[in-house]
Specification:
This protein has helices spanning 15-19, 36-39, 138-149, 178-193, and strands at residues 2-7, 25-32, 43-45, 52-54, 59-61, 63-69, 74-78, 81-83, 92-94, 100-107, 114-120, 160-165, 198-200, 226-227, 236-238, 241-245, 253-258, 271-276. With 277 residues, it is of the alpha+beta class.
């Protein structure tokens, strides 16, 4: 089974590339509403209006996460989501509509099922009069983790794959800040505590940065998944996209960042390939 995780940068034109991906399923972030010509071809999971809520004032972005069935070899069944406080007993309750999409998937003619999660750590401003003009993403990622935890009903045996653009850094922080390094680490430790630890991508499953950030530890295996300038390969320095998976399936998985110049594509984020034997 081949899965692609990809932030498509709110570009409607990239739906054409999504439709032609060599994969069974796509986990998308910052996905705008697809044109009808594409939407009629694909199995796209979307159970509410095409938006993502953002910030304390409730302003809205016209893109969201979604999961897309691309192959006739798989069966994809989406979970109906609704915001906490507005959900019925059968809904998957979420903290912020648009930032998380959940589906159950299995290969046709097989019984084994996986739960897939497409997730997006949206930027927001702290609710503080003393704020130093920060924008933060870890707060919204912690909400995602709380949502994901409700998918788990047993200590072992679950088969969950969660992937997406989290807008945080793994193993270090900007300007070598120990404060932010510790805050970012809580994301990975919480997921590990749930039994869904980080699985990649990490070098050599992806190219290292041409010009590494000055803060990057020498022993880091991070691979850049984000470019500040799409047309300049050397601007790809930060890894912002991550894959987490249940322990029970780690030995059957390979995760790779498709971040070579010739494979990057037309988004500011590269695609992440997840393969399961």
């Amino acid at each position: 089974m081949r899965i692609i995780s990809w932030n498509i940068h709110n570009r409607v034109s990239l739906w054409e590339q999504v439709a032609s991906l060599d994969a069974d399923v796509a986990l998308l972030q910052e996905a705008p509403k697809p044109p009808k010509s594409i939407g009629n071809q694909l199995h796209i999971i979307s159970d509410n209006d095409w938006y993502t809520t953002k910030g304390r004032k409730g302003n809205v972005r016209s893109w969201r996460t979604t999961i897309v069935g691309l192959s006739k070899n798989v069966e994809v069944k989406g979970r109906k989501t609704n915001q906490i406080g507005y959900s019925s007993s059968n809904d998957f309750m979420v903290s912020r509509p648009g930032t998380i999409t959940v589906a159950e998937i299995k290969l046709k003619n097989q019984e084994e099922k996986f739960i897939l999660v497409s997730m997006y750590g949206i930027w927001e401003k702290p609710d503080s009069s003393a704020s130093q003009n920060w924008i933060i993403a870890d707060a919204s990622v912690h909400r995602l983790i709380s949502d994901i935890s409700s998918l788990i009903g047993t200590q072992t045996g679950h088969k969950i794959i969660a992937a997406g653009d989290l807008n945080i850094i793994y193993g270090y922080a900007e300007n070598r800040s120990k404060y932010w390094e510790k805050r970012y680490e809580t994301i990975f430790s919480r997921m590990e505590a749930l039994g869904i630890p980080f699985v990649g991508p990490q070098y050599p499953n992806g190219e290292k940065a041409m010009v590494p950030p000055k803060e990057l530890p020498k022993d880091s295996l991070n691979v850049p998944t984000y470019r500040s300038s799409i047309n300049k390969p050397e601007s790809a320095t930060r890894q912002l996209d991550y894959v987490f998976a249940s322990d029970i399936i780690h030995n059957r998985m390979k995760v790779r960042a498709l971040n070579k110049v010739e494979e990057w594509g037309l988004s500011d984020h590269c695609r992440i390939l997840i393969e399961i034997e």
